[in-house]
Amino acid sequence: MEDKTKRLIIKLIHRFPKKESALLPALSMIQKRNGHITEHDLEEIAKIMDLPEARVFSAASFYTMLSLKRIGKYHIQVCTNVVCSLLKGESLLKHLSEKLGVQEGEITQDGLFSIASVECLGSCGNAPAIQINMDHYEDMSIEKVDAMIEDIKKMEWQD
User: CA 37 to CA 24: how far, in whole Å?
Assistant: First the structure.
């Protein structure tokens, strides 16, 4: 971890009455800067914040917006909890895997997409739900997912 990043984490700690309250903002900052959080990052954060490494790891591994593995520029998370699965969430995941040519946890060769199943995106009333990076989508279908993928590709090709 760079010294600049360590200084930013220390600065974050001083914003909160308890050091531990800065844990999620620190993890989010690392995620945003590097695209994912490494084991070394977790160790460094634990040292800086004087927390057990297990505590830092448990926070980093619990929240779906944080990733401990390298992910694509567009990380697609598909809810596979009971309600979403009953309303074809599993089919969406399988379709994405076939369409993008990657399995869960893998990244497309162009680095654009990665996919993952997640336990719950909190949208049981409008299932199935997916999330692309920090954007949340409900009432999804294969057609809607295909259109979104094509829109992203067009947007990327224009840049």
Answer: 12
**CA-to-CA separations, 59 to 45, 48, 64, 66, 103, in angstroms, rounded:** 12, 16, 10, 9, 25
- Distance in angstroms (rounded) separating the CA atoms of residues 153 and 14: 41
95-153 confidence digits (pLDDT tens): 999 999 999 989 999 999 999 999 889 999 999 999 999 899 999 999 999 999 999 99
At 80, list the tokens.
């596979």
Six token digits for residue 69 = 């593995």
pLDDT of 159 strictly over 80: no
| 91: three-class secondary structure by DSSP | helix
- Angle, alpha carbons 14-17-58 (nearest 5°): 90
